[in-house]
Amino acid sequence: MSRALPKYNKRRVVFIGGAAAVAxxxxxxxxxxxxxxxxxxxxxxxxxxxxxPGTISCPDVKSQLPAVPASAQAEVDRNLALLDxxxxxxxxxxxxxxxxxxxxxVQNAILGPLKDKRVSTIDRIAISIGxxxxxxxGLDSLATCALNAAGATGSTGATDDTATAAPSAxxxxxxxxxxxxxxGDASSAVGTISCPDVKSQLPAVPASAQAEVDRNLALLDxxxxxxxxxxxxxxxxxxxxxVQNAILGPLKDKRVSTIDRIAISIGxxxxxxxGLDSLAACTLTK
Length: 286
Description:
The chain is mainly α and 286 residues long. 57% of the residues lie in helices and 6% in strands. The chain has 9 helices and 5 strands. The chain has helices at 7-35, 40-51, 73-96, 105-130, 160-165, 169-176, 183-190, 210-233, 242-267; strands spanning 55-57, 146-149, 152-154, 192-194, 283-285. The strands form 2 sheets. The protein has a 3-stranded antiparallel sheet. A two-stranded antiparallel ribbon has the order 4-5. Helix 3 runs antiparallel to helix 4 (105-130) and helix 8 (210-233) runs antiparallel to helix 9 (242-267).
C-alpha cells in the first residue's frame, strides 16, 4: 500500500520544477543572443575591407623629362619630390576617408584635386627647364592618376554598378535646388566662390607680354567659373571640409600656377612682379 508524499516534498518538487523552467528559459535566451552575434570571420572581413581601400598610382614624370639644365636641376628635383609628397598625402587621405561621400567621392575629393596639384607642379618643372633650354610640352598628360582598388584599376575608383546605383552629382544638385535644372537657383543656395582681382594689382605690362597676360587673366576667370559650377554639381557630397579640399584648395593651386605665368611673362621684358601669390587663395561666400 503506497503512501502519499508529505506536503513539504510536494512543495520541493514544485520548486525544483520552477528552477528547471528558469534554467531552460535562460538557455533559450542565451541561445538567442548567441544566434544574433556577428560571426568573427565576417567582422574580420569587414575590418580588412575598410583597412584596404586601395592605392593611388600616377605616371612617372622624371623618366619623361628631357635633359635638365644644371641651373634648373635643384628646382626640378624639388618639384619631383613634391609630386611624391602629393601622392603620399592622397594615399593617406584615401585611408582616412574610407566610407565617406558617395560613389564619386574618391574622384571628386582625392583624384581630382591631386590632378590639379600635379598639373601645377609639372608646369613649374617645364617652366624651370624652359628658362635655360626648350620648354618640354605634353607633360600635362602625366598629371592624371588612378585608383587601384579590389584588383581593379580606374581613374574614378567607381564601377559601372555604383555609377548606376547612385544619382549623379548634377542630379543631386538639381534635386537640392528644388528639382529644376536652373543652376542659378542652386548657386544661390550653396554660395559662390570669390577671388582677389589680379589684373588691378599688376604693374605696367610690356606690350610684348600683353597677349599672354590677357590670356592668363581670362584663364583665371574660367577657373573661378568652373569652381562655382563644381560647387553646384557636388552639393551634399563629402564631409565638413569637402569644399575646401575638393574645390577651394585645387582652385588655389591652379591660380598659383596661372599667376606665376603672368609674373614670368611680365618679367621677360621688365621687372618680374612679386607677392602676387597672395592673390591666389579664394573664399566661399554664402
